[in-house]
Structure prediction request, 378 residues.
Amino acid sequence: MTPPPPFTQPLYVTRPILPPLAEYTTLLQDVWASGWLANGGAQHHLLEAELSQWLNAPHLSLFNNGTIALIVACQALRLSGEVITSPFTFPATPHVLSWNNVTPVFADIDPDTLCIDPNQVESLVTNRTSGILGVHVYGIPCDVQALDALARTYGLRVAYDGAHAFGTQVNRRAISSYGDATMFSFHATKLFHTAEGGALAVNDPDLKKRIELLKNFGIKSENEVVMPGINGKMSELQAALGRIVLRHVGTERERRATIRTLYQTRLAHQPGLNLLQIPANATDSLQYLVLRVNAQTAGLHRDQLHERLKRFNIVTRKYFNPLCSDYSCYRQLPSANPRNLPNAYRVAAEVLTLPYFGALSDGDVHQVCDAILYSLRH
Ligand SMILES: Cc1ncc(COP(=O)(O)O)c(C=O)c1O
Prediction:
């Protein structure tokens, strides 16, 4: 096999939906005419309503990013003491607990879904536990029914980091209909984005009222500030971008579904390689395309494949390695002991996120697959 050609420009794992600029500037004319750039203007209200409908999430609040949204969720749910979470995630997940003076307690993940294992969660509940912060990693849903049942048994709150779960459904129900609060990230790396942005979806209208206060400094009226809130507001420029991007989400999802099938066809029969699958009772958010590399069977470690693909100008990502429990700020926690997290350690050494976005051509996907297969054989 002759080596496939390298890409002429670095090929990254994602590229944001960038609608024709004229669509955005048309909407910006409305923003300019309104003279209103922040603090819940017309675009904000319209996007909130459109997303509420799209996500089937009746009580939705927009935010300036997903991390602040999750910090506010912890405040709104009054999480304290200890919260059980996943070590296999982006730094923001445990950090939002630390910013709320809550100790993250890391539970091992299920080896198939890569989300926290409810049995491990149950074994970590103490009298200091106030909640569970699950992560629908890569849009694969946590075992939401088991976690909801645990919450009922032990009187816990359940928040979800659904940064990757835009459009995920479980048992034909919106992902945010499970638990108390679900955060979505609208960062530029996400399929639906507002450049920076996020949202919180909750199931209790009173909780939404509290969230609206918390995200706006706790200001209730001209003369009343009722709690120590923060600035979590999404601007009109972000909201207008979101409204334009939302029009293109359907096409992007269709293209990503086709690309997934193409990758699957090219890589499925390769020993030691597995593309992560969404469970049968869930729909795919089509956010990431993740390869698991079994070093023994593939004859090559994930790290070697990651390095070799750089020679072809393909920049893959080892999401999520290192584990959060391995960061210097969390390593000393008893729950961070690697002996308690065997599945998380194994998975973190095997996963590789591949280029995956609608603007990839079939030829690009073939070129990536050729580079992977060439790297394995040479
Ligand atoms: C799992 C997860 N949680 C939280 C975040 C943070 O979201 P944001 O960048 O919108 O603050 C991200 C990444 O963007 C993420 O991947």
Q: What stands out?
A: The pocket of pyridoxal-5'-phosphate is lined by residues 65-67, 89-90, 92-93, 135, 161, 163-164, 185, 187, 198 (CB under 6 Å).
